[in-house]
C-alpha cells in the first residue's frame, strides 16, 4: 500500500497538478494587482481633476495673482500674507528662486498665518517643476500632516515703484486634506477587497487545477484499464495456444486427424487474436478522429444489407425482419454506416437463442435518420446498460467468450455515432430482449417513394 501511495505522489499527473495550481495562482495574482493599480490611478485622476483644474485657472487669473502679490509684498491691508481662502495659498519667488515672502523670524511685516509659515519652510523652488502639478505634505506638530497640490508657473510679472518690471515665479497651493482622507479610505477598501479576492483566488486556483485534471485522470485511468484488459484478452488465447502446441509435442507420432481437436482449437484462438488486434487497431484509429466521407445513398444500399442479414439469420436458425422507410437520397459514409449496423446486428445475433427474432428499422424523418436494432434475447439489466459501451465490457464474460465476443464492438459503434454528432441509446424490447436506437442528422436531396423491406 505504501508503494502505491509513493508511486501516486511521484506520478507526472500529481506533479503537474502543482504546476497547474501555480499557473492559475500567478495568473490571478497578476490580474488582481493590475486591476488594483488601474482602479487607484483612475480614482486619483478623478478625485484630483477638479483641484488641478482650479490651480490652472488661478494661474491664469491676474486679479488673483495681483492681490496675492500685494498681500505678500506688504502693500495690502490684509494680515494673512500668502493665504487666500480656506484652501488656496501662494508663494512668490524671484529669478534666483528665493521667496519674496518674509519668514516668521523677520522683524518686518510677517505672515500671521501659521499654516503658511510651515508651508514656506517646507517648500524649495525647483525650476524643473514649472507648469507641472506636484504634491507635498507639510508637517503639522499638532496633528495629521497637511497635504497640498501645487502648480509652479512663471507667467506673472511685477511692476516696481520705479517703473521697472520683475518676472517672478509663482507657486499656487490647494489644500487636499479632505480628498486625501477620502483617498485613504477608498484605497483601504480597494486593497482589502483585492486581498480578499486574491485569497479567494487561491481556493479557485486549487479548484481549477483539480477540475482541469479530471479529464486527464479519467483518460489516464481508461488508458490503463484498456491496456490491462487488452493484455488479459491476449493472455488467454496465448495460454491456450501454448498448451495445445505442447500437447502436440508430447505426441510426435500422432497424425493430423488424431490431433484435429487441438489444431482446430488453436486455429480458433488465432482467429480470436486476429479479430482482437484488428479491433484494437480500429479503436486506436478512431481515437485519433473519424473522418466522415459522405456519398449519395439510396434505399437500395440498405436493401442489400438487409439481404445479407437475412441469409445470416436463416443459417443461424433465426428470423429477420427489416423495415426501411427512406425517401430520396441521403449523404452517408456507407462504410461507417455498414460497420455500425453490422456491429448492432452481430450483437443481437449472438444474444438470441435458436428461433429468435431480430429486426432492423431504418427510418428517415425530416433531417434525421434513425436506426433501430431489436432482438428478443435475454436482455440487459439497467446497471449493465450504463456500461455497455465501455471497452471490453461484457455482460456475461464466460458466455460472451464462448460466442466470440470481445467487448469492443459497441464501443466502436458509439464512436461512429459520435462522429456524426448523433446519439445511441439502449432500452428494453417489449416484451423481451434489447433494442439499440441510433439517431443521426443527414441531408436530403432527391425525393423518392418510401420503400418497405419485410421478410419473415
From TrEMBL:
<keyword id="KW-0902">Two-component regulatory system</keyword>
<feature type="transmembrane region" description="Helical">
    <location>
        <begin position="186"/>
        <end position="209"/>
    </location>
</feature>
<dbReference type="InterPro" id="IPR003661">
    <property type="entry name" value="HisK_dim/P_dom"/>
</dbReference>
<dbReference type="InterPro" id="IPR005467">
    <property type="entry name" value="His_kinase_dom"/>
</dbReference>
<dbReference type="InterPro" id="IPR003594">
    <property type="entry name" value="HATPase_dom"/>
</dbReference>
<dbReference type="InterPro" id="IPR004358">
    <property type="entry name" value="Sig_transdc_His_kin-like_C"/>
</dbReference>
<dbReference type="InterPro" id="IPR050351">
    <property type="entry name" value="BphY/WalK/GraS-like"/>
</dbReference>
<keyword id="KW-0472">Membrane</keyword>
<keyword id="KW-1133">Transmembrane helix</keyword>
<keyword id="KW-0597">Phosphoprotein</keyword>
<keyword id="KW-0812">Transmembrane</keyword>
<dbReference type="Pfam" id="PF02518">
    <property type="entry name" value="HATPase_c"/>
</dbReference>
<protein>
    <recommendedName>
        <fullName>histidine kinase</fullName>
        <ecNumber>2.7.13.3</ecNumber>
    </recommendedName>
</protein>
<dbReference type="GO" id="GO:0000155">
    <property type="term" value="F:phosphorelay sensor kinase activity"/>
</dbReference>
<dbReference type="GO" id="GO:0004721">
    <property type="term" value="F:phosphoprotein phosphatase activity"/>
</dbReference>
<keyword id="KW-0418">Kinase</keyword>
<dbReference type="InterPro" id="IPR036890">
    <property type="entry name" value="HATPase_C_sf"/>
</dbReference>
<keyword id="KW-0808">Transferase</keyword>
<dbReference type="GO" id="GO:0016036">
    <property type="term" value="P:cellular response to phosphate starvation"/>
</dbReference>
<feature type="domain" description="Histidine kinase">
    <location>
        <begin position="229"/>
        <end position="444"/>
    </location>
</feature>
<dbReference type="InterPro" id="IPR036097">
    <property type="entry name" value="HisK_dim/P_sf"/>
</dbReference>
<feature type="transmembrane region" description="Helical">
    <location>
        <begin position="21"/>
        <end position="43"/>
    </location>
</feature>
<dbReference type="GO" id="GO:0005886">
    <property type="term" value="C:plasma membrane"/>
</dbReference>
<dbReference type="Pfam" id="PF00512">
    <property type="entry name" value="HisKA"/>
</dbReference>
Amino acid at each position: 500500500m505504501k508503494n502505491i501511495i509513493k508511486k501516486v505522489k511521484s506520478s507526472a499527473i500529481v506533479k503537474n497538478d502543482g504546476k497547474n495550481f501555480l499557473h492559475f495562482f500567478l495568473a490571478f495574482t497578476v490580474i488582481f494587482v493590475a486591476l488594483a493599480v488601474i482602479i487607484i490611478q483612475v480614482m486619483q485622476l478623478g478625485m484630483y481633476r477638479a483641484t488641478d483644474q482650479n490651480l490652472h485657472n488661478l494661474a491664469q487669473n491676474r486679479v488673483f495673482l495681483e492681490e496675492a502679490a500685494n498681500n505678500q509684498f506688504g502693500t495690502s491691508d490684509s494680515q494673512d500674507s500668502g493665504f487666500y481662502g480656506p484652501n488656496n495659498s501662494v508663494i512668490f519667488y524671484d529669478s534666483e528662486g528665493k521667496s519674496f515672502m518674509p519668514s516668521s523670524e523677520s522683524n518686518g511685516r510677517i505672515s500671521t498665518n501659521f499654516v503658511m509659515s510651515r508651508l514656506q519652510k517646507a517648500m524649495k523652488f525647483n525650476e524643473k517643476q514649472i507648469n507641472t502639478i506636484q504634491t507635498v505634505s507639510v508637517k503639522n506638530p499638532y496633528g495629521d500632516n497637511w497635504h497640498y497640490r501645487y502648480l509652479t508657473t512663471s507667467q506673472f510679472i511685477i511692476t516696481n515703484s520705479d517703473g521697472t518690471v520683475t518676472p517672478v515665479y509663482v507657486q499656487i497651493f490647494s489644500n487636499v486634506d479632505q480628498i486625501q482622507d477620502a483617498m485613504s479610505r477608498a484605497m483601504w477598501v480597494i486593497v482589502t477587497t483585492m486581498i480578499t479576492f486574491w485569497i479567494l483566488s487561491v481556493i479557485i486556483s486549487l479548484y481549477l487545477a483539480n477540475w482541469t485534471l479530471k479529464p486527464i485522470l479519467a483518460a489516464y485511468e481508461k488508458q490503463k484499464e484498456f491496456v490491462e484488459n487488452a493484455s488479459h484478452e491476449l493472455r488467454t488465447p496465448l495460454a491456450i495456444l501454448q498448451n495445445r502446441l505442447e500437447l502436440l509435442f508430447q505426441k510426435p507420432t500422432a497424425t493430423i486427424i488424431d490431433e484435429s481437436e487441438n489444431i482446430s482449437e488453436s486455429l480458433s484462438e488465432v482467429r480470436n487474436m486476429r479479430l482482437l488486434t484488428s479491433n484494437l487497431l480500429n479503436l486506436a484509429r478512431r481515437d485519433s478522429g473519424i473522418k466522415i466521407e459522405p456519398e449519395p445513398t439510396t434505399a437500395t444500399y440498405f436493401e442489400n444489407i438487409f439481404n445479407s442479414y437475412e441469409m445470416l439469420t436463416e443459417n443461424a436458425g433465426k428470423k429477420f425482419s427489416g423495415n426501411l422507410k427512406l425517401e430520396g437520397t441521403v449523404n452517408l459514409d456507407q462504410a461507417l454506416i455498414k460497420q455500425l449496423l453490422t456491429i448492432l446486428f452481430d450483437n443481437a445475433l449472438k444474444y438470441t437463442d435458436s428461433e429468435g427474432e431480430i429486426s432492423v428499422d431504418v427510418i428517415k424523418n425530416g433531417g434525421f435518420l434513425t436506426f433501430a436494432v431489436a432482438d428478443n434475447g435475454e436482455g440487459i439489466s439497467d446497471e449493465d446498460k450504463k456500461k455497455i459501451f465501455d471497452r471490453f465490457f461484457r455482460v456475461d464474460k464466460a458466455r460472451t467468450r464462448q460466442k466470440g465476443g470481445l467487448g469492443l464492438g459497441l464501443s466502436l459503434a458509439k464512436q461512429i455515432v459520435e462522429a456524426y454528432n448523433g446519439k445511441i441509446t439502449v432500452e428494453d424490447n417489449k416484451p423481451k430482449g434489447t433494442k439499440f436506437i441510433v439517431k443521426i442528422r443527414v441531408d436530403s436531396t432527391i425525393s423518392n417513394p418510401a420503400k418497405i423491406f419485410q421478410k419473415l
